[in-house]
Every structure is written in structure tokens, then in C-alpha cells.
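Hi Y.,

Following your request, here is the sequence exactly as I used it, all 118 residues.
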Amino acid sequence: QVQLVESGGGLVQAGGSLRLSCAASGSSFSFASINVLAWYRQAPGKQREFVASIFGGGSTNYLDLVKGRFTIARDNAKNTVYLQMNSLKPEDTAVYYCNAKITPKVYWGQGTQVTVSS
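Below is the corresponding structure, written out as C-alpha cells. Let me know if you'd prefer a different format.
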């Protein structure tokens, strides 16, 4: 079993930055065994959408809307995955969720609210 706890959300003005963190823990757990770590987001009244992912080897993928503004990174020594968000826009407002895949299981965090004011 893996627990994911997000932090770093908050209120920021448009053009500002935030860094989200997701700390992973669990019994008999190896952070290095996580196949894929990802961030998703869900805005009010909308479906949850993929934002960014990072594989064990370090390759990354991004939602087109955030390319060039967001950066995902993992620190295996700290069992943590980060999402650096720059040049934030009001449309980035959402609850951001951390996701971890250890095939065949998928784990989710509880989410952290990001609000970008115009």
C-alpha cells in the first residue's frame, strides 16, 4: 500500500509561480519501484485531466496547455515528486492530484487546491 500526500497549493496571482510536492510512503514500499508518477487536475465542473508524468528513467510528458510553463521532477532520495508551475494563468485553477502507478495498482493523493487570480 502506498500513501501520497500533496502540498504546496495556494492562492497566487496570474503570472506567479507555485511548486507542488507529493510525498510517497508505505510499508514494504520502494519509491524506485514506481513505474510512473504523474500530476492530474480537476477544475470545478470539469473532468479530471492529465497534466504531467515522469517515468522511472526520467522521461516526461506534459499536457500541451502547460508545456514550457510546468516542470515535473522526482527525487528518489526524498520519495517525492514535484510540479514546478510558472507563468500561472487563471485557467490553471483546479485541485491538483498526485498519481503513482506500480503496475497493476494505481494510487491517488487527496489533492491540493491551486487558485490563480486574474
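The mean pLDDT is 95.

Thanks again,
Q.
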